[in-house]
Amino acid sequence: MSHIRTARPGWVLYLSLLLLLPGLALFTGGMNGPGNKIICPGENVPSWSEGEEVPGPMHPGDSCGVIVGGNQNGGTRSYEQQKAVQAHDATRDLWIGVALLACSGAGLVWTGSSVWRSRRSRRATSTTTSTTSDPSKDTTSDTTAS
Prior knowledge:
This protein has 146 residues and is mainly α.
């Protein structure tokens, strides 16, 4: 356990700050949720387009031809199914963001407490060594007893 107390907190600080930015990005992205725009990851085929692909967000009644891994067809999804998939992805991003922010916060707290303990112990040792090493400040000797 002594290696934890004597470890330099610099690497934990850097790791905590490194986790902070992606955590914030995923958390805010997850908080926004799927939003009003339901985006098809493949070919968006609206119900009014007679089978032609139309760019842009999906609307109720549209179907989506999902393309997986380049040119492999992954089937079709309705508007409601695609909305549910995007809501699931947003929830997953939210929880990953929360986990990254929690790890980052714990690292920052550990770093702060480690630095605080280190400075406190240095002050305590510097005040005890300065008072005991100077004989003129020795309060235990009795100078009036002669």
